[in-house]
């Protein structure tokens, strides 16, 4: 499958909504946490596969602002998994020249997770092979609200004028300011929703939905999604004729 990928036409930014851990565990008669643990293993494999392919940006929806509403035990288990995962995997990321990044409301995370994240981000900040971004306590509407507030305050304080507000300005106020737009958005587990993820950034992204539950998602499934992406014609609002000129 991997050999069918055209490496000259790789998506530059893939975003993934990792869904289905709970259902996967339930199918096996186990607790939801077991699904998350297995999902963490999938995450590791997909990060490695992405780096090996040469895709520069991979952004993963690991924890949404809405996920705080889950039972406390599950939230705690996810935070503990994240903490342990960072401790365990950061060396592997660094050795592979992979940069770790995070977006979202970091202040709302437990202090130990914040510290571990900060340490990992600093350690890998000069790595160049690819950037892995974990969306944690992330919500796209919240991201847009803080951008609007910042821009409004800049106008009010005469730092910029109303006419300075354009796409570039809005991009600059988002967590993703240094990243290209998303080319390919993948969601696992058969749900056809965006769930408040990167609403601005996916304006022209190709959407790919698969029924595979996240713990069962393998690099082969990722290659399939990329091949599918490469078979589509991205017109960005233009006609096919205009594109072939
Ligand atoms: C969605 O499955 C998955 C999550 C809410 C968490 C994603 C976490 C991991 C992949 C493990 C690594 C952990 C971190 C925090 C990096 P779901 O629980 O919504 O599944 P369901 O829809 O079947 O209930």
Please specify the SSE layout and strand pairing:
Elements lengths: L12 E5 L3 H7 L4 H22 L3 E8 L7 H24 L2 E6 L7 H13 L6 E9 L1 H17 L10 H6 L11 E4 L18 E4 L9 H13 L8 H5 L1
Parallel strand pairs: 1-2, 1-5, 2-4, 3-4, 5-6
Helix pairs in contact: 1-2, 2-3, 3-4
The chain binds farnesyl diphosphate (FPP).
Farnesyl diphosphate (FPP) binds next to helix 1, helix 2, strand 2 and helix 3.
Function: Catalyzes the condensation of isopentenyl diphosphate (IPP) with allylic pyrophosphates generating different type of terpenoids.
GO molecular function: ditrans,polycis-undecaprenyl-diphosphate synthase [(2E,6E)-farnesyl-diphosphate specific] activity; magnesium ion binding
Subunit structure: Homodimer.
Task: Give an overview of the whole structure.
Keywords: Magnesium, Metal-binding, Transferase. Belongs to the UPP synthase family. Its cofactor is Mg(2+). One of its GO terms (biological process) is polyprenol biosynthetic process. With 245 residues, the protein is of the alpha/beta class. 44% of the residues lie in helices and 15% in strands. The protein has 8 helices and 6 strands, in the order E-H-H-E-H-E-H-E-H-H-E-E-H-H. Strand 3, helix 4 and strand 4 form a beta-alpha-beta unit. Helix 1 packs across helix 2, helix 2 runs parallel beside helix 3 and helix 3 runs parallel beside helix 4. The protein is globular, with a radius of gyration of 19 Å. The model has no long low-confidence stretch (mean pLDDT 96). Bound molecules: farnesyl diphosphate. Farnesyl diphosphate (FPP) binds next to helix 1, helix 2, strand 2 and helix 3.
């Amino acid at each position: 499958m991997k050999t069918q990928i055209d490496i000259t036409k790789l998506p530059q930014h893939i975003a993934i909504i990792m869904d289905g851990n709970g259902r996967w565990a339930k199918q096996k008669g186990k607790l939801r946490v077991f699904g998350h643990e297995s999902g963490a293993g999938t995450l590791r494999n997909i990060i490695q596969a992405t780096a090996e392919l040469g895709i520069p940006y991979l952004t993963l929806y690991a924890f949404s602002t809405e996920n705080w509403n889950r039972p406390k035990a599950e939230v705690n288990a996810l935070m503990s998994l994240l903490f342990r995962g960072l401790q365990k995997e950061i060396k592997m990321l660094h050795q592979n020249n992979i940069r770790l990044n995070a977006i979202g409301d970091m202040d709302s995370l437990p202090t130990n997770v914040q510290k571990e994240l900060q340490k990992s981000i600093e350690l890998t900040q000069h790595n160049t092979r690819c950037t892995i971004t974990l969306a944690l306590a992330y919500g796209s509407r919240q991201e847009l609200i803080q951008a609007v507030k910042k821009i409004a305050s800049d106008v009010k304080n005469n730092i910029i004028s109303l006419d300075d507000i354009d796409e570039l300005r809005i991009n600059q106020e988002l967590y993703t300011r240094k990243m290209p737009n998303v080319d390919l958005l993948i969601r696992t587990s058969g749900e056809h929703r965006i769930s408040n993820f990167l609403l601005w950034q996916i304006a022209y992204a190709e959407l790919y939905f698969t029924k595979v539950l996240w713990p069962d998602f393998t690099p082969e499934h990722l290659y399939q999604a990329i091949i599918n992406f490469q078979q589509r014609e991205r017109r960005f609002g233009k006609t096919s004729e205009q594109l072939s000129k």
